[in-house]
Amino acid sequence: MVFDHDGRHVAHHQLEHEQIMPQAGWVEHNPIEITERTNAVIQTTMSKARLSAHDLAAVGVTNQRETTIVWDRTTGRPYTNAIVWQDTRTAGIAAELENSAAGDLIRQRSGLTPASYFAGGKLAWILRNVDGVRAAAEAGNAVFGTADTWVLWWLTGGQNGGIHVTDVTNASRTMLMDLQTLDWDDELLDVFGIPRQMLPEIHSSSQVYGYTTASGPFAGQVPLAADLGDQHAAMVGQVCFEPGQAKNTYGTGNFMLLNTGNEPMRSQSGLLTTVAYKFGEEPAVYALEGSIAVTGSAVQWLRDQLGLIREAKDTEIIAAQVEDNGGVSFVPAFSGLFAPHWRSDARGAIVGLSRFNTRAHIVRATLEAICYQSRDVAEAMWADSGVDIDVLKVDGGVTDNGVCMQIQADVLGVPVVRPEIAETTVLGAAYAAGLAVGYWNGTAELTRNWREFRRWEPQWDDDQRRAGYAQWQKALTRTFDWVDPTESTT
After folding, report:
1. Contacts of 135 (CB under 8 A, 6+ apart)
2. Which residues contact 454 (CB under 8 A, 6 or more apart)?
3. Given this model, what pLDDT does residue 101 score?
């Protein structure tokens, strides 16, 4: 996506890449395909808008954060497919850590809870299970990165001088970075058995890391000046620059973040403590985060696995055919339950079915699941911070669904507001890149760019809200104790 100085969309292109699921609980991507399709969308967008490298002030990158790639620095060849954030093969490693003294160390240093979600366990799995990787890592040949690091490496030359970097937001999702020092922690590296030399350098979220190459998709030198994990980029795109401001991003998963200022706030309610962003030499800004594994991907499941819909947008039309869920609840715990429950033993369940129910009830229950999971996180945020969210800023593809956003307002009991640019993840990466090169003078200028597009006001009364949430909480308990995480491949 390309944006102008007013934060308005100029041009874009997008391509899906293959979701590889070789066995139950495993989710992979092909890193080479990611590179090829990244190059293709850049070239197509530049062509559509008739732009050259000289027309761009800077480039920012944003990514799904915990997806883990290990490759050979001399050839650029991945040692194995990328292990995606949703993958649960490392549940055994997480359980092993949780049941040892390492669990408390991980929580205290990294702000995270031991879980299959994060990159550190995925990297440890690759080192344990993929032939030749440990020896190559110890020799300095095998290197690690999340998807941002992989893309930045290729855009700056790959094996011919590509930079090996990440930013504080992505590093804060590995279980390997100290939240206070913003550097890799040697004790945590020892816990996971990870050689430090395979890790990228950690930088600010907004600074010039290097330049694109003439042989790359931009066909010229452009400053690469921002790198943020997707949810952190959305905080910037939603201009949540003040403590107490929150946003909720609806993508493959669902992620609510609350700005807590320049000091990390430790959660007592099942949330994660993370770096929200860091601009240049300014102090880091922290956030509480509620990470939900399955939201938009539940809609994909209705489409691809069950065949209940032809396109994602069909859910709005179908769900509107019924007044309520008809007693049906769907808990899409395909990868276990993330925040605030952290139940790796959970699996998905559709409960409350009777002969009365139709496809429309299941589709509506899917949209409600997205919203009730966000309610769980909002309740935890209030318990930790004492901050009542009086309006929820939302973004991401699911916000195109007006029925879902109305349900979200009803479930939370607060207005839900979508900005003019719904893809605020991408906008935030652009903003951070522009700040680094002086294209924008500061966050106040970005705040002036924010424009409301649509607002949903709550329509349920308190009794409806209480009854609906009670049904959801009852359904949650039906997903527990379904698998034994210690039996996962380690």
Report:
1. none
2. 402, 405, 417, 418
3. 85
- Alpha-carbon distance of 43 to 218, in angstroms, equals 7
pLDDT number for residue 251: 83
pLDDT given for residue 45 in this prediction = 97
Bond before 340 cis per omega within 30 degrees? yes
- Full 3-state SS string of 114-142: CCCCCHHHHHHHHHHHCCCHHHHHHCCCE
Single-letter amino acid code for the residue at 353: L
Q: Are 107 and 274 in contact (CB under 8 A)?
A: no
pLDDT band at 352; cut points 50, 70, 90:
very high
The tokens of 425 are what? Answer: 């993840």
What's the distance, Cα to Cα, between the start and end of the chain in Å? Answer: 39
Concatenated DSSP letters of 295-351? SHHHHHHIIIII-S-SSTTHHHHHHTTSSS-TT-EEE--BTBB-TTT-BTT---EEE
Q: What SS3 state is found at 213? A: coil
Strands 183-184 and 142-146: unpaired
Is the predicted pLDDT of residue 489 greater than 60, yes or no? no
Q: Tell me how far apart the alpha carbons of residues 490 and 488 are, in angstroms, rounded to a whole number.
A: 6
Burial (Cβ within 10 Å: 0-12, 13-18, ≥19) of residue 322:
middle
